[in-house]
Amino acid sequence: MKVLITGATGFLGFHLCQKFISEGYQVTILRRLTSDTSPLKSLNLKQVVGDVMNIDSLNRAVEGQDVVIHTAACIDFQPELKDSGNKVNMEGTQNLVATCKKYEIKRMVHVSTSMAVGQILNPKDSPADETFHFNLEDSPVNYPISKRRGEEIVMKECKNGLDAVVVNPGFMFGAFKNHFRGPAILEKTYTRRIVDYYPGGVSVVSVYDVVNGIFRALTKGRNGERYILGGENVTYLQIGKMVAQNLRVKRSFILIPPPVTGLAERVLVPLGKLIKKQSPVPYGTHYFSNRFDFYNSNKAKKELGYNPEPNSCELMVKEYLDYRSNKSIN
Question: What is the band of 80 on the pLDDT scale with cuts at 50, 70, 90?
């Protein structure tokens, strides 16, 4: 079986390449000329240089494939990236969909994001599922909107001959390229005695669980359906306290309420641009800081056999501390 993976030089894409090779697939990746391919050196795969905005490269990459896993995306959190985000996440998806139909690909798995589902405002509310009403249309950050539109493009074409499934991963954690990907409060709690935190929370999930979920979506998912691939729903404070507990240290946790994030963002983001330094309060923080990326993955569990680690936060903290320990030794 032949599979094309877009976005393969990224965090999730790299782990997908490992998974599909281990399952006996012949893997081809579509990557940009400037992409860092060093993590892929040890993997037996074919590379096609191009991107989702280049039709010729899409033709070369898709022709002869059986299935396609689409992870390539523009993480357009900054206002100046909005146009790029729309091009890659929407136009690029449309280009790939058209190419998949042209070459009669057996199945496409479109990797979206849990943010394209929406976010709950109260942790006491039921976690969002696939039927949740998308409530981020007024988001100052374009990413959830452009990814939502990308999903809609795929879903529309499922009614016009495309066989495709959409997956919505939660906040993935894991090691990649000598770094550990996880919520910022991991590092804050590890390095500071006084830890500032936001009142929101996330659904943390191991990248390996998401990879397995995507593989199952490819083989078991129903055409035209979307599946949330979440993990454990935890607040930022819970994460910080678990890090401190595992370190056996005392930390003072200071809540940063929405009025403070709003003021800080209005002052520090423009100042950062003026002095050409990144603001300590990123753009969009005020909007998202008191929202909750809490999700229900029951549909994926029931239909795909998706089986994420139930104690994902504990696993994340352990993996992060192991990473920090090894980093200190090396």
Answer: confident
Instruction: Give the model confidence (pLDDT) of 36-50 as tens digits.
Output: 999 999 999 999 999
Query: What are the residues whose beta carbons fall under 8 Å from the beta carbon of 73, sequence distance 6 or more?
Result: 7, 88, 89, 111, 113, 147, 150
Residues 292 and 123: beta-carbon distance below 8 Å? yes
Instruction: Return d(Cα 250, Cα 244) in angstroms, integer.
Output: 6
3-class SS of residue 223:
coil
Question: Do 183 and 151 meet the contact criterion of CB atoms below 8 Å apart?
Answer: no
Tokens of 200: 């929101």
Question: Residue type for 227, please?
Answer: Y
Full set of structural domains in the chain with CATH: 2-174+205-230+295-309 (3.40.50.720)
Q: What is the DSSP string of 118-179?
A: --BS-TTSPPB-TTPPP--TT-SSSHHHHHHHHHHHHHHHHTTT--EEEEEE-EEEEEETTE
- The structure's pTM equals 0.94
